[in-house]
TrEMBL record:
Taxonomic superkingdom: Bacteria
Family: Belongs to the short-chain dehydrogenases/reductases (SDR) family.
PANTHER family: 5-KETO-D-GLUCONATE 5-REDUCTASE, DECAPRENYLPHOSPHORYL-2-KETO-BETA-D-ERYTHRO-PENTOSE REDUCTASE
UniProt key word Oxidoreductase: yes
InterPro entries: NAD(P)-bd_dom_sf, Sc_DH/Rdtase_CS, SDR_fam
Matches recorded under SUPFAM superfamilies: NAD(P)-binding Rossmann-fold domains (SSF51735)
Taxonomic lineage: Bacteria, Bacillati, Actinomycetota, Actinomycetes, Kitasatosporales
Organism of origin: Streptomyces neyagawaensis
Full protein name: Decaprenylphospho-beta-D-erythro-pentofuranosid-2-ulose 2-reductase
Molecular-function annotations in GO: oxidoreductase activity
UniProt KW keywords: Oxidoreductase
NCBIfam families, A to Z: PRK07904.1 (NF005912)
A Pfam family the protein falls into: adh_short
């Protein structure tokens, strides 16, 4: 169970090699988290991440999980929840893609959409049902400011994140009053290996800053977290810019 400050004892990360998720795990382990499940495609990086968290004092397990195999989600995730209550699920997998390439390759574009949206819908529903059955827990979903308005430079990724964002908000409404807390996290540009080599946007942030915001959101039982917080005002303005002008902005 969580303590008075919202820190979970047990954590399940979907997307076990995510730099944001691992920064969050490190921060939570330093507080109170003692059991961590890292779910992701089997790889040396997944095992390295698990070994690192064990070194910090957490009992850490890895489990093979593929966002693009929704038929397997109920079985795989059900086995994890059968081991004991999970206080927090962090849905952190995603695929940025290559906009210029993916516009010319519909199969690649669909893979971005299926990873960021379809796979997340499947895993999110399975975890939500399990959390509801145990009567407590938080489901934290990594969305993006890209979900707020599609931009020419990343509308394939942005449209998938928009779907994920809307789904998570609706799921939060459906679970209201059940004891399950659902939180959407909307970071801006995050400096990670996934974004390496790409031009930074204003208000760029780090995995550690996102992790700090997630922990604070858990304590406050927030429903939406922006990272950095100033992006909330920026996107509120951009959302209402007329399309002819929006097309001319250097976004």
């Amino acid at each position: 169970m969580k303590d008075a400050f919202g820190t979970p004892q047990s954590l399940l990360i979907l997307g076990g090699t995510s730099e944001i998720a691992l920064a969050t795990a490190r921060r939570l382990i330093a507080r109170r988290t003692r059991t961590v499940w890292l779910a992701g495609r089997p790889s040396p990086d997944l095992e390295k991440a698990a070994a690192h968290l064990r070194g910090l004092g957490a009992e850490t397990h890895t489990v093979a999980f593929d966002a693009l195999a929704p038929d397997s989600h109920e079985t795989i995730l059900g086995k994890i929840f059968a081991e004991g209550d999970i206080d927090m699920v962090l849905l952190a997998f995603g695929l940025l893609g290559d906009q210029a390439h993916d516009e010319r390759d519909p199969v690649a574009a669909v893979r971005v959409a299926q990873t960021n949206y379809t796979g997340a819908v499947s895993a999110g529903l399975v975890c939500a049902r399990a959390l509801q059955a145990q009567g407590h827990g938080s489901l934290v979903v990594l969305s993006s400011v890209a979900a707020e308005r599609a931009r020419r430079s990343n509308f394939i990724y942005g449209s998938a994140k928009a779907g994920l964002d809307a789904f998570t908000q609706g799921l939060g409404d459906a679970l209201h009053g059940t004891g399950v807390h659902v939180m959407v996290v909307r970071p801006g540009f995050v400096r990670t290996s996934m974004t390496a080599g790409r031009p930074e946007t204003p208000l760029a942030t780090t995995p550690e800053a996102v992790a700090t915001a997630i922990e604070l959101g858990l304590r406050r039982r927030s429903e939406t977290v922006w990272v950095p917080g100033a992006l909330r005002l920026v996107m509120a303005a951009l959302r209402h810019v007329p399309r002819p002008l929006f097309r001319r902005l250097p976004l």
